[in-house]
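Hi everyone,

Forwarding the result from last night's run.
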Amino acid sequence: MTISMYQASVPAFLSMLKNLTTIIEKAEGYAAEHKIAEEVMVNWRLAPDMFPFSRQVQIAADFAKGTTARLAGAEVPSYPDDEKTFAELKARIRKTVKFVEGFKANDIDGSEDRDITLKIGGQDMRFKGLPYLVHFSLPNFYFHATAAYAILRACGVPLGKRDYLGEM
């Protein structure tokens, strides 16, 4: 049995974005219950040189929409990185989910050898579709989703592995 490019990407992105929404909702409740200002948690970092929670969510969403679009050969939408509240971060996730859901298997399947070029740090990085998905996009997507989860855990939000993994 083989797995298609669509199966390896879109369902994974949608599942984790749903889980991030649930995690944010738990953080909202925790902040309200413990009278913690939302901006404290949204701007919390694990280390001084790491991005804050808000940026981790933004980047995870960017990888989901960008990867899906690039694999399909479509235009990558640009979202401003101006979310400052949990509600705004959830809205960004909803917008990303809607965009990703707009792609069907036949848009992405067969993209294993698609040429993909990204400009990172002013330099072009060139990939073929499969290595781009498996060795670059998915690891980065999960890294930022995990960092967001870990930041909320560090803030005291009672999250567990099931919150991160979601329903199976």
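The longest strand covers residues 115-120.

Cheers,
N.
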